[in-house]
Design goal:
With 229 residues, the chain is of the alpha/beta class. Helices cover 46% and strands 13% of the residues. It folds into 2 domains: 130 residues, Rossmann fold (3-Layer(aba) Sandwich), CATH 3.40.50; 68 residues, Arc Repressor Mutant, subunit A (Orthogonal Bundle).
Length: 229
């Protein structure tokens, strides 16, 4: 079983990804929210694959890769980012990173990438899997697919509900959500419940996970990403 460490400063995304990865097979050794925490874990725990967000506030993990590799030379590193450019990919590859992927990919595809990296492959954007499997990269959802269904449901969200969903993705509780949006707590609860119903989610965490997995919300800013129909 692949042993994985997740490091992302967005708490909801990190914990949601860890939960999804665990449900799909890999063992999540630890969930950390800063490279310093990850390095401490890597020095004491055997980890097959370390999954790191690219950005940590104003910092970038690219500046810490040498230190991370020194802490765990045998751990294969994967970078996840919401906006990946050629410079980031090249810098990661030069530092020995074995995988780079868009963090908005569905969890099943992320798991596939981690398994390929753990198997010794170098997996970069546009890097096709072996045996003619579908590329591990985001694509337009096929009509009738779960992603297509979810995005069509998302079209029924009102502008205010999209703001509420963005706040949930950023880990806001009801009180802070209400304060940031300038609405009463009771109104906030009604909007949250409406979002859950429209997305078919059973919890706030499930709604936030759905929004990130299917590219509805930018996990860093809470901004709505899909075209507004």
């Amino acid at each position: 079983m692949t042993r994985i460490l997740v490091c992302d400063d967005h708490v909801v995304f990190a914990e949601s990804l860890a939960h999804l990865l665990g449900a799909l097979g890999p063992e999540v050794v630890a969930v950390t929210f800063h490279p310093n925490q990850a390095i401490a874990v890597l020095r004491r725990e055997p980890v097959d694959v370390g999954v790191f967000d690219v950005a940590f506030g104003t910092e970038t993990v690219l500046d810490r890769l040498a230190e991370i590799r020194a802490a765990a030379p045998n751990t294969r590193l994967v970078l996840l980012g919401a906006r990946l450019d050629a410079q980031t990919i090249a810098a990661g590859q030069a530092a020995g990173v074995r995988g780079v992927a868009d963090k908005r990919l569905p969890a099943a595809q992320i798991v596939q990438i981690l398994e390929r990296v753990n198997g010794g492959e170098l997996v970069l954007p546009d890097s096709p899997p072996p045996d003619s499997l579908p590329p591990a990269r985001p694509s337009r959802p096929a009509r009738g697919s779960p992603a297509d269904y979810t995005q069509r449901l998302a079209a029924f969200l009102t502008p205010r509900e999209r703001q509420v969903l963005g706040a949930l993705v950023r880990g806001r509780d009801t009180i802070r959500l209400a304060k940031e949006l300038g609405i009463a707590e009771t109104t906030a609860r009604c909007h949250i419940q409406s979002v859950l119903i429209k997305l078919g989610a059973h919890s706030r965490l499930e709604a936030a996970t759905t929004a990130v997995r299917f590219g509805m919300i930018d996990p860093q800013t809470g901004r709505w990403l899909l075209p507004v129909i």
